[in-house]
Write a structure and sequence with these properties.
- The protein is of the alpha+beta class.
- It is 65% helix and 11% strand.
- It has a five-stranded mixed beta sheet with strand order 3-4-5-7-6, with helices on one face. Strands 1-2 form a two-stranded antiparallel sheet.
- The radius of gyration is 34 Å and the shape is elongated.
- It starts with 13 loop residues before the first helix and ends with a strand.
């Protein structure tokens, strides 16, 4: 498996190379403590796993101490060498409740990028001790080389411990300095090579991840369209269709009575007219649920303002967007908020909803739209197959984003979504 070499390596200047050696020495001093702490927490947690859940807490602590070490190594290597290493992020299942929490822990535990970071961190700690030893050898060699100036020509060679005196002290000291400097230079090159080999994803891994993401987005799009089609069919079958059938029957009765009882016929026609206007309103609302024209014409801010104005629950709307995003991204955020407002009014018995929408920048994903909808209702919202929340979750997934639902019994309910601006 070969590494992706699309990102050209950064050539280190002498001062920067000295900084790399200093970083390795620092990792040597703190790395052993970090790795020992993680191993101790994990081992103790395994031993106490059956004691009041204390062991589970320790195992979780060990996991995130190890993640912190991996994150530190990713940031060090990328900031120093610029290999194009993807930033390390905490994994999340996006599922609510204790089951979702356990799945989050499992995803984090099986995160290959984290374990590669831990391995690279451990290797850096070992190289750091080599740096400390070689630096000490340089100081000792310099002392040997200048020892005749102090009147005491002699000493022991670093590492080897061989006693040298008189003229051999100067030669031995110079040789020790040169060899130690060569070791330091070689360690800096080796660290560059190892971090690139370990932390930079291979081209095959990148392509596999892209294929997995594309497959997940396609599945989300298919699922979202299926849920939307089912909703449209249900609304037509349960709402508009019976009303139009009633209009037809009412007009038929009016036609029968128009000669014998014009007054009754007129009343039936008025009833049919009222029902027709109601059906038109329902069709308009149904069409708005399929596509919001104001979203295309005036953007997400205006569309959300119109949505909040129509809401049966008071909405505190706070939208701050720097620029327009793709139609897919804006539609995903719009329908997430629309469904959340509907749920707050119909199911949560909320008296207030707060909606916050922001533009954000991400080093890897670029420009993002982040939105949070929170109501003060009774909570207990769940993602049910074929339900409204299931539909918006899949719509967000199809747009390449993520969604997190937090709705404990008793409330409040909070839904957060993050969608790439250009999807």
């Amino acid at each position: 498996m070969t590494s992706d070499t699309s990102a050209p390596p950064r050539r280190l200047r002498p001062l920067r190379r000295l900084g790399a050696l200093a970083q390795l020495a620092a990792i040597a001093l703190v790395g052993i403590g970090i790795l020992t702490t993680a191993a101790t927490l994990f081992g103790t947690g395994i031993g106490l796993a059956l004691v009041l859940g204390i062991g589970l807490v320790l195992i979780i602590a060990a996991l995130y101490v190890a993640w912190a070490a991996a994150w530190l190594e990713h940031e060090r290597a990328e900031g120093l060498y610029g290999h194009g290493i993807p930033p390390l992020a905490i994994r999340a299942s996006g599922q609510p409740g204790f089951r979702g929490f356990l799945r989050t822990l499992w995803l984090q535990f099986t995160d290959g990028a984290m374990w590669r970071g831990i391995g690279s961190f451990a290797i850096a700690a070992v190289l750091g001790w080599v740096v400390i030893g070689a630096t000490s050898a340089v100081v000792t060699g310099v002392g040997l080389a200048v020892s005749p100036l102090g009147g005491a020509a002699g000493g022991r060679l670093p590492v080897l411990g061989i006693l040298v005196t008189d003229g051999w002290a100067v030669a031995g000291g110079i040789l020790a300095v040169l060899v130690s400097l060569g070791i330091l230079f070689g360690v800096s090159l080796l660290d560059d090579l190892l971090t690139r080999s370990i932390l930079v994803p291979s081209r095959e891994a990148v392509l596999a991840e892209q294929a997995r993401t594309a497959g997940a987005q396609r599945a989300g799009a298919v699922r979202a369209s299926e849920v939307e089609r089912t909703r449209i069919e249900r609304d037509l079958h349960d709402g508009v269709q019976p009303r139009l059938v009633s209009v037809g029957m009412t007009l038929g009765l009016a036609q029968q009575k128009i000669d014998s009882d014009p007054v009754a016929a007129k009343a039936l026609i008025d009833e049919a007219h009222t029902s027709t206007k109601a059906a038109i309103t329902e069709l308009r609302q149904l069409a708005r649920g399929i596509h919001a024209s104001v979203l295309d014409d005036r953007g997400l801010d205006a569309a959300l303002s119109a949505l909040a104005a129509r809401s049966h629950v008071p909405v505190a709307l706070d939208v701050r967007l720097d620029e327009r995003c793709s139609a897919t991204s804006e539609a995903a955020v719009y329908f997430v908020i629309a469904e959340s407002l509907t749920n707050a009014a119909k199911h949560a018995r909320a008296t207030e909803v707060r909606v916050v929408v922001r533009s954000r920048d991400d080093a890897q994903a670029g420009r993002l739209i982040w939105a949070r909808v929170e109501d003060n209702g009774i909570g207990g919202a769940r993602v049910l197959p074929g339900g409204g929340i299931d539909g918006i979750m899949n719509r967000v997934l199809a747009a390449g984003g993520t969604a997190t639902l937090d709705s404990p019994i008793g409330g409040p309910t909070a839904l957060e979504v993050t969608v790439p601006c250009a999807s």
